[in-house]
Amino acid sequence: MPAIQMNADELEIGKPLAKRLIAEQFPDWAGLPLEPVLSAGTDNTIYRLGNSMAMRLPRRAGAALQVEKESFWLPRLAPHLPLAVPLPLALGIPAAGYPFYWSVCRWLSGQDAVADPIADQHDAAIILSQFICALQKLDATGGPPPGEHNFFRGASLQSRDIQTRAAIESLDGVVETAPLIRAWNAALAIAPWDKPPVWLHGDIHAGNLLTEHGRLSAIIDFGGLGTGDPACDLMVGWNLLSAEARATFRLGLTVDDATWARARGWALSVAVVALPYYLHTNPVLVAISRHAIEQVLSETE
Question: DSSP secondary-structure letter at 2?
Fold first, then answer.
């Protein structure tokens, strides 16, 4: 669990509270070991429950919107996906002074791709393209559109203009901002998505990918799950991969030039918003953001 508070509105969720919630709502699991899980994630406090489960507790109201959505949709989507995902096992309710719904999920083996970096980026690019293609092929009827529940992933790039420009302005003195403004202006000029919405994970980056022996094995944290423009899922091409692996990634996708270019814009926007926000609290997300900015500018300058 992070030692530094990353958001002004987040709750501190200690082990005694977590144990009490389990004991009161799922007494059959009350005797299982409960240990905190170190994570660079920003939305949930995570405990490992026994050997086969994980307890996820939202730290703030925005993240709490994700719990019921994941519990409903992940069991329906998971059987059709080529990577393991954290299947919900139980849904907890607000209690004991804790105000949000929370969940118990299946524990997935492996480490995140920050702690256990990907050994072969081209192999990872192929696996990621297969996952994204499989997700996009699933029937999106009734799927949640972009909204507060998934930080508006899948919406238009234009909807991110105000926050992106403000973030770039705040980076003056941290990075050179003129190239960022030029790249962002170019992204806004790209034709928007005009096809039916498709399923998207919404937040694919190294912290949400699990590896075993350096090979991708699972994808976690579906808080960004929703339907909309698939470009935001492709931003992993810039926030994780090298230029060479990014080419392999694109070969595995069915994607038009406009969507690919919007994906580059998504990678830039998410990176420049995250970089100043987490500059002094989350070195993992800062490193991911810097990599994305570097990769985007290498293609736009």
Answer: -
Q: What is the DSSP pairing of strand 209-212 with strand 111-112? A: antiparallel
What six digits make up the tokens of 78? Answer: 């998971």
* Residue-wise pLDDT tens digits, 44-72: 999 999 999 999 999 988 888 899 999 99
Both tokens of 44, joined, read 């949930």
pTM exceeds 0.85, yes or no: yes
Helix axes 243-251, 283-300, angle to 10 degrees: 80
Identify the CATH assignment for 15-108 out of 3.30.559.70, 3.40.50.720, 3.30.200.20, 2.40.37.10: 3.30.200.20
Q: Of 3.90.1200.10, 3.30.428.10, 3.40.50.300, 3.40.50.2300, which CATH number belongs to 112-300?
A: 3.90.1200.10
User: What distances in angstroms separate CA 52 from CA 34, 89, 107, 191, one per listed residue?
Assistant: 11, 11, 5, 45
Rg (CA), the chain: 19
